[in-house]
Amino acid sequence: MAGSINLEVVTPDQSVVSEEAQMVVAPGAFGEFGVLPGHTTFLTSLSLGMIRYKDQSGSERLVFVNGGFAEVMQDTVTILAESAERRRDIDLERARAAVKRAEERLAEASKKEDVDFRRAHVSLQRAITRLKVAETR
Prior knowledge:
Strand content: 35-45%
Shape: elongated
Oligomer: single chain
Radius of gyration: 16 Å
């Protein structure tokens, strides 16, 4: 495989990734998609999930992403995410605590009318996904 892809992952607060990659796989709204150098141009929305990419040395890197958009060009993938974290930056204890809090909130939602069930469910899915990214090796 010749060439590389310039991968940019940014949130409203920061640049999370800015490096050359051999390939990128991201969670599109209609399913996961992969990008190699020379890919056709497209724009898509992203769902909650994991971005996987191989850096220039061939090591796989993981990034948690919470929605947003991806613009793919022949040699560039730009991801504008609502929030994102590299695997190495996810605090496991904090992620586990977030899963526990979200599960408790969801249990409350089934008993009380004033608890937003959908919001509690989305929080749980986000917490589980962050934990999955952090624990993937």
